[in-house]
C-alpha cells in the first residue's frame, strides 16, 4: 500500500470511530422523560414506568428499591426509568420509546389502566413481557404486584368507624372523597370502604378527588356548603395527598377534631396523625412491593418460572386473568407509628419529629 493510500485508510478509520462514539450518546436520556441506570439498553434491560411525580412514594421509595433489587439479582441488567407526570399519553409514548430501545421486560404502574391497553398489547406483540405494578393494567399482562386493595378500603373504613367511636351511627353524616375513576385501585378502595361503612353511617356526600389535593379541597368545600360544617361527623379520603388538602379546608372552615382517613403513610400524614388533624393512614410497605416486582421482572427476563411468586389470579378490566402477588396493608394511627413506619425504616424519628412536632412526638411517646 503506497503512502497516499495508507493516509486515506487511516483517516477514514478515524472518522468512523468518531461517528461511532457520537452515535452512542448518553444511554437512557431522551425527550420522553426517560432515564436509565447502568450503561446499556436492550439485552438485559428492564423498564420501570411510574405514573406521576405528585405522589411522594414513587421517586422517593418505589424507584430506588426496585433498581437496587434488580441490581442485586442481575448485576448485568440495566433499568430504564420514566415517569408519566400524570399524563396517560406521555406514558404511552414512554412505553413506545422503551420498546424501540429493546427493553425486554416492562414494569408499568399505569396512569390510566384502560388507556394503556393498546400500549401493553403492542409491547407484547414484540415479545416483551409486561408486569402491572400497584395498579392492574388492561391487556395481556404477564404478572401483577400490588396490595389487597379491597382490604385497604376496608381498613380505611374501619379506622374511620373506630375514630368516630360512639358517633358511628346511621345518623352521622360522613363525606367520602374517592380516588381517580381512571385508576382501578380507586374502585377497589371505594368498594372496601363501602363494605365497612354502609349501614353504619350516613354517607351524605361522595365525590372523586382525582388523587389531587386541590380537587379534594374543592370537593370538601362543596360538602361543607351542602351539609354545613357542624353537621359533618367524619371524612373518608382515599389517600394522604387528598387528606392534606381536605385538612386545610377543614381548618379554614373552623372544623377540628373530626376523623379523617388517608393512605400511603406519607410523612406529612404521619405528622398530621401526631397533631390530630388526621386520624389514620394505610401503610403499604413500598420495599417488599418494589422488590417483588423486581424479582418477577428478572425471572421473566431470564425465562424462569414465576408461579411460586405470583400465587393468586386477578382479573383485569379487559377480562385477562393475571398471575398476581398481593401484599397485606396495615392501618396506622398515632398509637402504632413506632411499630410500623419507624420499625421498617421508612422514616426515622428525626424525620418525623421536626421542630414543629417535638411536643406532639413527646406526647405520643415517639422520642
How would you describe this structure to a colleague?
By secondary structure, the protein is α/β, with parallel strands linked by helices. 44% of the residues lie in helices and 18% in strands. It is built from 13 helices and 13 strands. Strands 1-3-2-4-5-6-12-11 form an eight-stranded mixed sheet, with helices on both faces. Strands 8-7-9 form a three-stranded parallel sheet, with helices on both faces. It has a two-stranded antiparallel ribbon with strand order 10-13. Helix 4 (117-125) links the parallel strand 4 and strand 5 (129-133). Helix 2 (57-73) packs across helix 10 (286-301).
Q: Please mark out the parts with pLDDT under 50 across 5 or more consecutive residues, or reply none.
A: 1-32, 37-41
- Rounded mean pLDDT is 90
Helix content bin: 40-55%
Shape: globular
Radius of gyration: 24 Å
> How far apart are the termini?
82 Å
Number of strands: 13
Q: Characterize the main sheet.
A: 8 strands, mixed
Oligomer type: single chain
Written as H for each helix and E for each strand, in order along the chain, the element string is HEEHEHEHEEHEHEHEHHEHEEEHHH
> Which strand order spans the largest sheet, edge to edge or round the barrel?
1-3-2-4-5-6-12-11
SS-based class: alpha/beta
> How many helices does DSSP assign?
13
Q: Give the percentage of residues in beta strands.
A: 15-25%
Structural topology:
Layout: H1 3-24, E1 34-37, E2 45-50, H2 57-73, E3 78-83, H3 88-101, E4 105-108, H4 117-125, E5 129-133, E6 143-147, H5 149-164, E7 173-178, H6 184-197, E8 202-208, H7 213-227, E9 232-237, H8 240-252, H9 267-275, E10 281-283, H10 286-301, E11 312-315, E12 321-327, E13 330-332, H11 338-342, H12 349-352, H13 358-363
Parallel strand pairs: 2-3, 2-4, 4-5, 5-6, 6-12, 7-8, 7-9
Antiparallel strand pairs: 1-3, 10-13, 11-12
Amino acid at each position: 500500500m503506497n503512502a497516499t493510500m495508507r493516509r486515506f485508510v487511516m483517516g477514514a478509520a478515524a472518522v468512523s470511530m468518531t461517528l461511532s462514539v457520537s452515535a452512542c450518546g448518553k444511554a437512557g436520556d431522551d425527550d420522553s422523560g426517560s432515564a436509565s441506570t447502568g450503561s446499556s439498553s436492550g439485552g438485559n434491560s428492564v423498564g420501570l414506568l411510574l405514573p406521576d411525580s405528585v405522589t411522594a412514594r414513587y421517586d422517593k421509595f418505589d424507584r430506588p428499591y426496585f433498581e437496587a433489587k434488580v441490581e442485586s439479582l442481575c448485576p448485568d441488567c440495566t433499568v430504564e426509568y420514566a415517569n408519566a407526570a400524570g399524563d396517560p399519553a406521555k406514558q404511552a409514548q414512554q412505553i413506545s420509546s422503551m420498546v424501540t430501545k429493546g427493553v425486554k421486560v416492562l414494569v408499568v404502574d399505569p396512569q390510566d389502566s384502560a388507556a394503556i391497553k393498546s400500549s401493553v398489547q403492542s409491547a407484547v406483540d414484540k415479545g416483551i413481557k409486561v408486569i402491572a405494578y400497584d395498579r392492574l393494567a388492561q391487556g395481556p399482562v404477564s404478572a401483577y404486584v400490588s396490595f389487597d386493595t379491597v382490604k385497604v378500603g376496608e381498613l380505611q373504613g374501619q379506622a374511620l368507624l373506630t375514630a368516630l367511636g360512639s358517633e358511628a351511627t346511621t345518623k352521622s353524616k360522613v363525606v367520602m372523597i374517592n380516588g381517580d375513576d381512571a385508576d382501578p385501585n380507586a374502585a377497589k378502595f371505594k368498594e372496601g370502604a363501602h363494605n365497612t361503612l354502609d349501614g353504619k353511617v350516613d354517607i351524605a356526600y361522595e365525590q372523586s378527588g382525582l388523587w389531587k389535593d386541590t380537587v379534594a379541597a374543592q370537593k370538601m368545600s362543596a360538602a361543607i356548603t351542602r351539609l354545613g360544617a357542624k353537621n359533618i361527623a367524619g371524612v373518608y379520603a382515599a389517600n394522604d395527598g387528598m387528606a392534606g388538602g381536605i385538612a386545610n379546608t377543614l381548618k379554614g372552615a373552623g372544623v377540628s377534631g373530626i376523623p379523617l382517613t388517608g393512605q400511603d403513610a406519607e410523612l406529612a400524614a404521619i405528622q398530621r396523625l401526631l397533631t390530630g388533624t388526621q386520624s389514620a393512614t394505610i401503610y403499604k410497605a413500598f420495599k417488599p412491593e418494589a422488590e417483588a416486582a423486581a424479582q418477577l421482572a428478572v425471572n421473566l427476563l431470564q425465562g424462569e418460572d414465576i408461579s411460586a411468586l405470583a400465587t393468586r389470579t386477578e382479573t383485569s378490566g379487559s377480562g385477562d386473568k393475571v398471575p398476581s402477588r398481593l401484599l397485606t396493608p396495615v392501618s396506622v394511627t398515632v398509637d402504632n407509628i413506632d411499630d410500623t413506619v419507624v420499625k421498617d425504616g421508612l422514616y426515622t424519628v428525626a424525620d418525623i419529629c421536626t421542630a414543629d412536632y417535638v411536643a406532639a412526638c413527646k406526647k405520643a411517646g415517639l422520642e
